[in-house]
Amino acid sequence: MRVDEFDYELPPELIAQEPLPRRDASRLMVVDRDSGRWIHAHFRDLPRFLRAGDCLVLNDTRVRPARLYGRRTTGGHVEFLLLQPLDDGRWLALARPGRRLRPGTEVVCGEERPLRVRVEEVRDSGERVIRLEPPQGETVDETLHRLGRVPLPPYIRTELKDPERYQTVYAREEGSVAAPTAGLHFTPELLEELQDQGVRIAYLTLHVGVGTFRPVTAQRVEEHRMHAEFFRVEPEAAAAINAARSAGGRVIAVGTTVTRTLETVAADDGTVRPGSGWTDLFIYPGYRFKAIDGLITNFHLPRSTLIMLVAALLGKERTLAAYREAVARRYRFFSFGDAMLILPGAVPAGHAP
Fold first, then answer.
1. What protein family does this chain belong to (predicted)?
2. Distance between CA atoms of 196 and 63, rounded to whole angstroms?
3. Which pLDDT tens digit goes with each residue over 133-171?
4. Same domain, 131 and 261
5. 179 near 335, Cβ under 8 Å?
6. Under a CB-based contact definition with an 8 Å cutoff, are residues 54 and 252 in contact?
7. CATH number, residue 260
8. How far apart are CA 232 and CA 203, in angstroms?
9. Which of 147, 170, 196 is the last residue before a domain boundary?
10. Per-residue model confidence as pLDDT tens digits over 246-285
11. Which helix (H) or strand (E) holds 212?
12. For 327-341, what is the mean pLDDT?
């Protein structure tokens, strides 16, 4: 398959630049996985489409304040995006302007009690290995929470007034460079309502990595290679998911990160096994799903691995038709945009795309 088969026309004004005042006020396109039919609703209507015994699986990762601004000791502004910790105070990072950040370059971030950064290595991919030296009496994490900022995707050009709006309400374990955005629509009240009607809630962790910011540059889908991301599935979560499936409930992944994690740890019969590790699973049309029945997801960038995953579940032509409908209906797109629910039997007969 060619990557350009997953392209679509998106007016720039439909890219949401800020979140809605209320998380669950987002619109929700509900698409029947079996027929491709759709109806329009709001995210607060989600309980209408789930039933007792279903299991909703969410990613509890938290976005790290991974963006740092500073100045080289020789002059000039510098920006770092911390990707992951390595060892002994070293981190893997993206940096700009890259051409000026050679090994040995020193950067100072902050004015009072500054963080000192030293570039130690430049990798072939352009990523830097840097060493962070916090001020005396402060840990690296404490310094990052004081000086760092939550990174937003490059297509969001406005300053976020409340950084917590780029975190899910259930975010717990810090480690991502981007939010699992399908979960941004949930409120504590909505989660409680779902549990009260008998929907199981299970949590896993996948720390979203730099691959979420990088476009697919290959011409053919099969040539693309995913960046590996760390995941963990606790035994209690695996047990809840497996119990729901055994009892005839549906397993609904909240987001592509949850989908990739579950499909990584699932046996051929769909049984989810607990564990942790790194996954670079790339899901695109032709993939046979083992673990999930449905998916809640936002509307994704053209030609991205995320829209390819959606197309693997719903079918390429149905996916593109749903996206054209979303554009026509002026849905809001990407991280702060509206959502889609893909679920078998979700739309009654008589509704036609």
1. Belongs to the QueA family.
2. 29
3. 999 999 999 999 999 999 998 899 888 889 999 999 999
4. no
5. yes
6. yes
7. 3.40.1780.10
8. 10
9. 147
10. 999 999 999 999 999 999 999 999 999 999 999 999 999 9
11. none
12. 98
Using DSSP, state whether 48 is helix, strand or coil. Answer: helix
Q: pLDDT category, 352, cuts 50, 70, 90? A: low
Give per-residue burial for 219-256: e unless 16+ CB within 10 Å, then b.
eebeebebbebbbbbeeebbebbbebbeeebbbbbbbb
Supply the mean pLDDT for the chain.
95
Enter the tokens of residue 177. Answer: 């460079």
128: domain CATH number? 2.40.10.240
State the Cα–Cα distance between residues 272 and 275, nearest whole angstrom. Answer: 10
Same domain, yes or no: 83 and 205: no
Q: Are residues 182 and 121 in the same domain?
A: no
By CB atoms closer than 10 A (0-12, 13-18, 19+), residue 173 is middle
pLDDT in tens, 69-127: 999 988 899 999 999 999 888 999 999 998 789 999 999 999 999 999 999 999 988 89
345: left (phi over 0), alpha (psi -120 to 50) or beta: left
* H/E stretch holding 63: strand 61-63
**Helix, strand, or coil here: 282?**
coil
Instruction: Burial-class residue 271 by CB neighbours within 10 Å (0-12, 13-18, 19+).
Output: middle
Closest CA to 351 of 36, 42, 48: 36
Distance CA 187, CA 179 (A): 15
Amino acid at residue number 76:
G
Q: How many CB atoms lie within 10 A of CB 188?
A: 10
Which residue is it, tokens 């896993």?
A: 204
Quote the distance between the C-alpha of residue 133 and its chain's center: 30
User: Which domain does 139 fall in, by range?
Assistant: 67-147
In the block, which residue shows the tokens 């350009």?
A: 4
Give bridge partners of residue 206 from the DSSP assignment: 231
Cα separation, 104 vs 96, in Å, equals 15
Angle between helices 305-314 and 316-328 (to 10 degrees): 110
Q: Are residues 333 and 199 in the same domain?
A: yes
- Whether residue 97 is preceded by a cis peptide bond, meaning omega within 30 degrees of 0, is yes
